UniProtKB/TrEMBL annotation:
<dbReference type="Pfam" id="PF08245">
    <property type="entry name" value="Mur_ligase_M"/>
</dbReference>
<dbReference type="InterPro" id="IPR005757">
    <property type="entry name" value="Mpl"/>
</dbReference>
<keyword id="KW-0067">ATP-binding</keyword>
<dbReference type="InterPro" id="IPR036565">
    <property type="entry name" value="Mur-like_cat_sf"/>
</dbReference>
<keyword id="KW-0961">Cell wall biogenesis/degradation</keyword>
<dbReference type="InterPro" id="IPR004101">
    <property type="entry name" value="Mur_ligase_C"/>
</dbReference>
<feature type="domain" description="Mur ligase N-terminal catalytic">
    <location>
        <begin position="4"/>
        <end position="101"/>
    </location>
</feature>
<keyword id="KW-0573">Peptidoglycan synthesis</keyword>
<feature type="domain" description="Mur ligase central">
    <location>
        <begin position="110"/>
        <end position="294"/>
    </location>
</feature>
<keyword id="KW-0436">Ligase</keyword>
<dbReference type="GO" id="GO:0106418">
    <property type="term" value="F:UDP-N-acetylmuramate-L-alanyl-gamma-D-glutamyl-meso-2,6-diaminoheptanedioate ligase activity"/>
</dbReference>
<dbReference type="InterPro" id="IPR036615">
    <property type="entry name" value="Mur_ligase_C_dom_sf"/>
</dbReference>
<dbReference type="Pfam" id="PF01225">
    <property type="entry name" value="Mur_ligase"/>
</dbReference>
<dbReference type="InterPro" id="IPR050061">
    <property type="entry name" value="MurCDEF_pg_biosynth"/>
</dbReference>
<dbReference type="Pfam" id="PF02875">
    <property type="entry name" value="Mur_ligase_C"/>
</dbReference>
<keyword id="KW-0460">Magnesium</keyword>
<keyword id="KW-0133">Cell shape</keyword>
Length: 455
C-alpha cells in the first residue's frame, strides 16, 4: 500500500507543487489549507488529491505516515498542536523535497529578490527544447508547460529557490535544503520584512546557499550588485560566471532601443539573436542567466537562443489581459519597488498607468514606503488601493506623487473611478502578489460596458 503523505498549507504554489511531485513519486497525498482556493485547489483536484478546508485535528485520523508542514503554519494552530502531541513524523516542504527527490538530481536553483519565477521557467523550457526533459518546481505556470511542477525524465531538476523560511521549526531559508550544482543569483535587495530584520540577515542566508554548492558547480550572477559582492566575500568555493561579460561570460551584443530582439554573446562569440514578445531589460537579463545555466548543463547557447525565441512567458508577469477601446491591460506580480519600476519601464509606448495593491508583508508593514514614489515615476497616473490591513497611511505618498495619485479605500471606489479615467492608448499595469479582489476581470467588464464592446 502506498504511504500516506498529508500536507498542511497545500494550496500555496510551492506546497501545491510538492503535492503534485509526491503523487508522481507514488505517495497517497492529501492536504489542507485555511482557504481551499483556485488555481491550486483546481490543479490538485484534477490530480485526485483530496483537500480539507481548515485546521481541525480530525484530519490526522487515521494518522498519515508523514506530514509536510507549510511555512504559513505556526505554534498554536490546532492541527500543529495535535501533530506534535501525537508524535506523527513531520518535515518542512523543502526538507522533504530534498530528501525524497533533489539529492538524486542535478539541481539548477534560481535565487534572488526578483526574477526567480521567470528565469526558472526559461531554464526549464531551454532544457525541454534541447530534449533533456527536466523536472521542475516553479512558483508560477510557465507558458510553455501546462503545470508548475513535474518529476521529469532525466537527472536535471530546475527549482525556484526562495529565501523565505522553511517552517515554524526551521527558520533557515528554503533554498538551504536544495543542494544545487548550478545556482543563479539574480540580484539581492531587502525584502520579507516580516521575517528578516535587515539586508544583512538575508545576505547570511544567501551565503548559507553558497556554502552548499560543490566546487565543480557554477554560480551565475550579475557583476553590478554590491549586496551579492558581500555574500561572495564571506567565502566562495565555486566558480563564478558574470553576466554582461562579453569575454568570459554571457552578454548582450546588438540591441535596438525598445526592441524585443537582442544578440547573445558567449565567451566572445555570437550565438544568435533572441526574438520574442517579452519586454524589458530585466527579462533580457533573466534570459542571459538562463542561457548560462543551461550551458552548464550541456545545452549549446545557440540552442538556448532558439528556445527562448519560442518562450511564451509566465502567467502574471506583464501578462496581457486584453484591450478595450485601445486601452491595454496587463497583469503583473510586482510587489517590490524595484519590480514595480521595471514593470512600468517595460510597458509599450503610451500613457503608463499603475494600478497597485501594496499587499506583500513588506509593503503592508511599510518597509518599502519610502522607495515607492521613485518606483512609480514612469507612471503618469497611479491608482493605489489601500486596504484596511495596511499599517501606514497611503496619503503620505501624495506629497511626492501629487495629483498623479488617486487613493481608493475600497474596490467599489476604484472600479467607479478607473473606467472613466482611462483613455485610448493607455498601457495599464495591474500589480499585486495576490488576487486583488478580482479587479482584472471586473475592470475589463466595466470598460466593455462603458465603451459598448462585447467580450
Amino acid at each position: 500500500m502506498a504511504k500516506h503523505l498529508h500536507l498542511l498549507g497545500a494550496c500555496g504554489t510551492f506546497m501545491g507543487g510538492v503535492a503534485a511531485l509526491a503523487r508522481d513519486l507514488g505517495y497517497r497525498v492529501t492536504g489542507s489549507d485555511q482557504n481551499v482556493y483556485p488555481p491550486m485547489s483546481t490543479q490538485l483536484a484534477q490530480l485526485g488529491i483530496e483537500l480539507i478546508e481548515g485546521w481541525d485535528p480530525s484530519q490526522l485520523d487515521p494518522a498519515p505516515d508523514e506530514v509536510v508542514v507549510g511555512n504559513a503554519l505556526s505554534r498554536g494552530n490546532p492541527v500543529v498542536e495535535a501533530l506534535l502531541e501525537r508524535g506523527i513524523p513531520y518535515a518542512s516542504g523543502p526538507a522533504w523535497l530534498a530528501r525524497e527527490l533533489l539529492r538524486k538530481r542535478w539541481v539548477i536553483a534560481v535565487a534572488g529578490t526578483h526574477g526567480k519565477t521567470t528565469t526558472a521557467g526559461m531554464v526549464a523550457w531551454i532544457l525541454e527544447y534541447a530534449g533533456l526533459k527536466p523536472g521542475f518546481l516553479i512558483g508560477g505556470v510557465p507558458g510553455n508547460f501546462p503545470v508548475s511542477a513535474r518529476l521529469g525524465d532525466t537527472p536535471f531538476f530546475v527549482i525556484e529557490a526562495d529565501e523565505y523560511d522553511s517552517a515554524f521549526f526551521d527558520k533557515r531559508s528554503k533554498f538551504v535544503h536544495y543542494g544545487p550544482r548550478t545556482a543563479i543569483l539574480n540580484n539581492l535587495e531587502f525584502d520579507h520584512a516580516d521575517i528578516f530584520p535587515d539586508l544583512a540577515a538575508i545576505q547570511r542566508q544567501f551565503h548559507h546557499l553558497v556554502r552548499t554548492i560543490p566546487g565543480s558547480g557554477l554560480i551565475i550572477r550579475p557583476r553590478d550588485c554590491p549586496a551579492l559582492d558581500a555574500v561572495i566575500d564571506m567565502g566562495c568555493w565555486t566558480p563564478v560566471l558574470f553576466l554582461h561579460d562579453a569575454d568570459s561570460g554571457v552578454a548582450v551584443g546588438r540591441e535596438e532601443e525598445g526592441s524585443t530582439a537582442f544578440e547573445v554573446i558567449v565567451a566572445g562569440e555570437s550565438c544568435g539573436t533572441v526574438q520574442w514578445r517579452l519586454r524589458g531589460e530585466h527579462n533580457r537579463d533573466n534570459a542571459l542567466a538562463a542561457i548560462a545555466a543551461a550551458r552548464h548543463a550541456g545545452v549549446a547557447p545557440a540552442v538556448a537562443v532558439e528556445a527562448l525565441s519560442r518562450f511564451r512567458g509566465m502567467k502574471r508577469r506583464l501578462e496581457p489581459l486584453g484591450a478595450v477601446a485601445g486601452i491595454h491591460l496587463y497583469d503583473d506580480f510586482a510587489h517590490h519597488p524595484t519590480a514595480i519600476r521595471k514593470t512600468l519601464g517595460a510597458l509599450p509606448a503610451g500613457r503608463r498607468v499603475a494600478v497597485l495593491e501594496p499587499r506583500s508583508n513588506s509593503m503592508r508593514l511599510g518597509a518599502h514606503r519610502e522607495a515607492l514614489p521613485a518606483s512609480l515615476q514612469e507612471a503618469e497616473r497611479i491608482y493605489l488601493f489601500v486596504p484596511e490591513a495596511l499599517e501606514w497611511d497611503g496619503s503620505l505618498l501624495e506629497a511626492e506623487l501629487g495629483d498623479r495619485l488617486f487613493i481608493a479605500r475600497n474596490m467599489a471606489e476604484l472600479l467607479e473611478r478607473l473606467p472613466d479615467d482611462l483613455l485610448p492608448g493607455d498601457q495599464v499595469a495591474i500589480m499585486s502578489n495576490g488576487g486583488f479582489e478580482g479587479i482584472h476581470g471586473r475592470l475589463l467588464a466595466a470598460l466593455r460596458e462603458r465603451h459598448g464592446e462585447s467580450a
